[in-house]
Design brief:
The complex is a heterotrimer of chains A (250), B (268) and C (269). By secondary structure, chain A is mainly alpha-helical. Helix content of chain A is 82%, strand content 0%. In chain A, α3 (52-85) crosses α8, α8 packs antiparallel against α10 (217-245) and α9 packs antiparallel against α10. Chain B has 2 domains: 2-93 and 169-267, Rossmann fold, CATH 3.40.50.300; 100-168, no CATH class. The chains are: A mainly alpha (250), B alpha/beta (268), C mainly alpha (269). At the A-C interface, α1, α4, α5, α6 and α8 of A face α1, α4, α5, α8 and α9 of C.
Chain lengths: 250, 268, 269
C-alpha cells in the first residue's frame, strides 16, 4: 500500500467510526442514554466550553499542568544527568529507579492529600512527582545516547568542553530530549487528571468524574472528547518536531 | 582420506550431472518498475563437483542460489536437480547453509541439527542418531547440548553445515557461509569444508566474495557480471587435491586469482 | 579512601529509609498523621488483617480476570497487526497517537455503563493492560530475523510449521516483556479504579481510610499494593530473564526505533 491509500483507508475508518457513533444511538441500535450520538456530544461540547465554570476549571488544570511541568523538568533533568554522568551514583541508583518506575504512583495520592490538602498545591505536587521519574529516565537515556566515538573524535580534534557540549552533546541528544518532553507531558497531563478525579473541588478532571457519577452522559463524553483531542494534538505536534530533528538519525 | 580426495579430484565433467540450469532469467518488481536481476544463466554442475560463484555485490548470486534451493522461482528458464525440477524447497535433495548461521537461538546445537528431521516427524531415536553423526562429522563431538549463543562463529557455521547435511542431500548450497568469520577462522573452516566434502562426496555450490577462498576451494569458479547478472567466465581450477595452505603461495594460485579479479573488474 | 561498593550503598540506603520511616515519626519531627511510623503501619496491617486479606482477594480476582482480558486480546490483536503488513501500516501509527490519551478519563464511562462493581474495574484495567501486550506482540512478530524464516523454508517447513516452530518461539521474549508491562498496568488499573469509585478492594481501603484520616491504615494498604506490584515485577522479570538468552540472538539488529520506544514506553500512572 502506498502512503495515499493508507491515509485514505485511515480516514475512511475514522469516518466509519464517527458515523457509527452518530447513527447507532440515533436510530436506537444502541441506548442513546448510555452512548449519546456524536452530534449531541459535539453540541454539548460547544455549550459546555461556553460555561464560565468549565472555563475556570480548564484554566485551573492548565495552571497545575504548567507549574508541575516547570518543577518536574529541571529537577528530573538534573538528577538524570547526575546519574548518567557519574558512574558511581549511576550504579547505586539506576537499579532502584527501575523498581520505583514499576510502582504505581497513584497509590501515593492519599499521602499528597494528607500533606497538601486537596487544592492547587497538591495537584501540582502529585503531577510533578508522577512526572519526575520519566524525566530522570529520559535524561539518563539522553546522555547515554551520545556516542563515545563521537566524543573521542571531537576530543582528538581538540574541541573545548563548551564546544563538546554545543556541538556533540546537544545535537546528539536533541531527538531524545524531544521524546522525553513528549513522554513527560503525557505523564504530567495524566497526573493532573488523576489527582483531580480522585479528590478535588475544581479542574477538568473533577468535572468529568462528577459528570460520570451523576450520569450526565453528554457532558461526560464532551469532556472526554475534549481531553483526548488536546492530548493527541499536543502529542502529534511534538512528534512532528521530533521527525524534523531526527531526519539524520536513521 | 587420501584415497577419497583423489577420487573427488578424478571426477570430471563427463560424469553424471547434479544441477542443470538453462535459459534462466529473472526480473523483479522494484520501486521504479521492473528490474532485471539475472539474464540468461546457463550452468551445469557435475555430481560431486565443488563450484564457486563469485561476482560484484548485488549481481544476483544470492537470488540464483535461492532459485537452486527452490526458495524463489525464476521468471524464465529451467532448473533441474538430478534430472528433476525443484519447484519448492526439498532438504532431502538440496541442503542450504546461509551467511549468518541462522541457527534457531532457542534450540541447542543438537536440536538445531534435528530440526529438518523433526519437521518430517522422523522417529526420535533416528533423529538423535543422525544428528549426532552429523555433529561428529563437522567436528563438534560433545557440543550438542550447547546453545548457539554459547558457540563461536566458526562452530555455529559447523552446526549449520551439519544441519544442511542431516538429510543426506546430494547437493549442498552455501551462501557466503564464512563471510562473517575472521580471516583465520575462515581459512580453517574452508579447509574443514573440503574435508567434509571429500568424506561425503556431495555436490557443492558455494558463493563467496573472497577470491582466495574461491580458488582454494573450487573445482570450477563461475564469474558473474554486475546486474543484470550473467555468467561471464568459467575458470577451471586445476590445482591438485587435497588442497594445502602452501598452494596459496604458488604462482599458479596467484595467476588464477588474478584472472578472476580481472574478470570481476571488467564486469563491474 | 576506597568508596564502598554500589550494592552496599544501595542496601544501606534502603535500611536508612526504613529506619527513618520508624524514627522520624517517633521523635515527632513529622506528625503521625502525615507519616505513621513503620511499626504503627505494620500494627494496623496485622490488627485488621482479615479486612486487608478480604480486600486483597477482591483485588486479585479483578486483576487476574483483567490480565486474562488484556493478554488474550493483546496477543490476538498484536499477532494480527504484527503479522499482516497492511494492518500494521494502517494501525500502528494510530496506536502510538492514541498512547497520548490518558485512559483514566474513560473510567467514568465504564462505571456509568457497567456499574461500580468488579465488571467496570476489570474492563478498565483490561483496556489499560491491553496496549503494551498488543504492541509488544506486534513488535515481537515483526522483528523476527527473516533469515530464520528463510532457513526454515529451505528445510521445507510448511506455513503452520513456520508459525509453530519459528514465529512463536522467536517472539516469546518480546511478548513476555509486554506481559510484564501489561500485567503491571492491570494491577495499577484495578487499584486506581478501586480508589476512584468502588466499594471493595485494596484501592477502596486506601480511599476509605483516607477520608477518615486513619493514616496508619492508609499506609498499610499502600504498603500492600507496593509489595504486590514489586512481587509481580520481580516474578515477571525472572521469567523474562530465563528466556532472555536468545532474545538478542533471534532478532534483527536494526529494529524500528520508534516502534521499540513505543513498546517499552511506560504508562503514565
Amino acid at each position: 500500500m502506498n502512503r495515499l491509500t493508507i491515509l485514505a483507508v485511515r480516514l475512511a475508518l475514522l469516518g466509519a467510526f464517527l458515523a457509527a457513533w452518530e447513527m447507532l444511538p440515533r436510530h436506537g441500535v444502541l441506548d442513546a442514554r448510555m452512548l449519546p450520538p456524536l452530534g449531541d456530544v459535539l453540541r454539548m461540547l460547544v455549550d459546555v466550553l461556553g460555561r464560565p465554570r468549565v472555563q475556570e476549571a480548564i484554566g485551573v488544570s492548565a495552571g497545575e499542568f504548567a507549574v508541575a511541568f516547570l518543577i518536574a523538568i529541571p529537577l528530573g533533568a538534573a538528577i538524570g544527568i547526575l546519574i548518567a554522568e557519574n558512574d558511581y551514583l549511576g550504579e547505586i541508583f539506576k537499579p532502584m529507579l527501575f523498581y520505583v518506575f514499576s510502582v504505581p504512583k497513584s497509590i501515593f495520592l492519599p499521602m499528597f492529600i494528607l500533606v497538601f490538602g486537596i487544592g492547587f498545591q497538591q495537584k501540582v505536587a502529585y503531577a510533578a512527582f508522577s512526572t519526575v521519574f520519566i524525566v530522570i529516565m529520559s535524561a539518563t537515556a539522553a546522555v547515554e545516547s551520545v556516542k563515545a566515538d563521537h566524543l573521542l573524535v571531537a576530543r582528538s580534534y581538540g574541541a573545548t568542553r563548551a564546544q563538546i557540549i554545543g556541538r556533540v552533546y546537544l545535537p546528539s541528544m536533541m531527538p531524545v530530549l524531544l521524546e522525553a518532553l513528549r513522554l513527560s507531558m503525557i505523564f504530567n497531563f495524566t497526573g493532573v487528571l488523576i489527582a483531580e478525579m480522585y479528590a478535588s473541588r475544581t479542574g477538568i478532571g473533577q468535572l468529568i468524574a462528577n459528570w460520570g457519577e451523576n450520569f450526565q452522559m453528554p457532558q461526560l463524553f464532551a469532556g472526554v472528547v475534549f481531553l483526548a483531542t488536546v492530548a493527541i494534538v499536543f502529542n502529534e505536534s511534538i512528534r512532528w518536531l521530533e521527525a524534523q530533528c531526527s531526519a539524520w538519525r536513521t | 582420506m587420501q584415497r577419497l580426495a583423489n577420487l573427488s579430484a578424478a571426477r570430471t565433467d563427463a560424469g553424471p550431472t547434479a544441477i542443470e540450469v538453462a535459459g534462466l532469467s529473472h526480473v523483479y518488481d522494484g520501486r521504479e518498475g521492473k528490474v532485471p536481476a539475472l539474464e540468461d544463466i546457463a550452468m551445469t554442475v557435475g555430481a560431486g563437483r565443488f563450484v564457486v560463484i563469485v561476482g560484484p555485490s548485488g549481481c544476483g548470486k544470492t537470488s540464483l542460489l535461492m532459485m537452486l534451493a527452490g526458495l524463489r522461482r525464476p521468471s524464465e528458464g529451467a532448473i533441474l536437480c538430478n534430472g528433476r525440477p525443484i519447484p519448492s524447497p526439498d532438504p532431502e535433495r538440496v541442503g542450504v547453509v546461509f551467511q549468518e548461521a541462522s541457527l534457531f537461538p532457542w534450540l541447542s546445537a543438537q536440536d538445531n541439527v534435528e530440526f529438518p528431521l523433526a519437521l518430517r516427524h522422523a522417529p526420535r531415536a533416528e533423529r538423535r542418531r543422525r544428528a549426532t553423526d552429523m555433529l561428529d562429522l563437522v567436528g563438534l563431538q560433545g557440543f550438542g547440548g550447547r546453545y548457539p549463543h554459547e558457540l563461536s562463529g566458526g562452530m555455529k557455521q559447523r552446526v549449520a553445515i551439519a544441519r544442511g547435511l542431516v538429510q543426506d542431500p546430494p547437493v549442498l548450497l552455501m551462501d557466503e557461509p564464512f563471510a562473517a568469520l575472521d580471516e583465520q577462522t575462515r581459512m580453517t573452516m574452508g579447509h574443514e569444508l573440503l574435508r567434509i566434502w571429500s568424506q561425503t562426496l556431495k555436490t557443492v555450490v558455494f558463493i563467496t566474495h573472497s577470491l582466495t577462498e574461491a580458488v582454494y576451494l573450487a573445482d570450477e569458479v563461475l564469474v558473474m557480471s554486475a546486474r543484470p547478472g550473467r555468467i561471464i567466465d568459467r575458470i577451471a581450477i586445476a590445482l591438485p587435491r587435497p588442497r594445502t595452505y602452501d598452494m596459496m603461495a604458488t604462482d599458479t594460485f596467484g595467476r588464477l586469482r588474478d584472472r578472476i579479479w580481472q574478470q570481476i573488474r571488467t564486469a563491474d | 579512601m576506597r568508596r564502598p561498593r554500589p550494592v552496599t550503598v544501595r542496601r544501606l540506603l534502603i535500611v536508612a529509609v526504613l529506619v527513618l520511616w520508624e524514627a522520624v515519626p517517633q521523635t515527632g519531627l513529622i506528625p503521625e498523621l502525615l507519616l505513621p511510623s513503620l511499626s504503627s503501619t505494620l500494627r494496623a496491617l496485622i490488627a485488621d488483617w482479615d479486612k486487608y486479606g478480604e480486600a486483597l482477594l477482591v483485588t486479585l480476582y479483578e486483576v487476574s480476570l483483567a490480565m486474562l482480558v488484556a493478554c488474550g486480546a493483546g496477543i490476538l490483536v498484536g499477532a494480527l497487526v504484527g503479522g499482516l503488513k497492511p494492518l500494521r501500516d494502517l494501525l500502528l501509527p494510530v496506536f502510538s497517537s492514541l498512547y497520548a490519551v490518558p485512559i483514566v478519563i474513560l473510567y467514568p464511562i465504564f462505571t456509568a455503563w457497567l456499574g461500580i462493581g468488579s465488571e467496570a474495574k476489570i474492563a478498565f484495567a483490561g483496556v489499560y493492560g491491553f496496549f503494551p501486550v498488543m504492541l509488544s506482540t506486534a513488535a515481537g512478530i515483526r522483528t523476527i530475523d527473516p533469515q530464520l524464516l528463510l532457513a526454515a523454508r529451505a528445510m521445507g517447513a510448511t506455513v503452520p510449521q513456520q508459525i509453530g516452530r519459528v514465529v512463536i518461539p522467536a517472539s516469546i521474549p518480546t511478548v513476555l516483556t509486554g506481559l510484564r508491562l501489561g500485567g503491571a498496568l492491570t494491577i495499577i488499573g484495578v487499584v486506581v479504579s478501586e480508589m476512584l469509585t468502588s466499594t471493595a478492594g485494596i484501592g477502596y481501603l486506601v480511599t476509605r481510610y483516607r477520608t477518615i484520616l486513619d493514616s496508619a491504615h492508609v499506609f498499610a494498604a499502600v504498603f500492600m499494593i507496593l509489595v504486590l506490584s514489586i512481587l509481580f515485577d520481580t516474578f515477571a522479570r525472572y521469567i523474562e530473564r530465563r528466556t532472555m538468552v536468545w532474545q538478542t540472538a533471534g532478532r534483527r539488529e536494526r529494529t524500528d526505533t520508534a516502534d521499540r520506544r513505543l513498546t517499552t514506553a511506560p504508562a503514565p500512572v
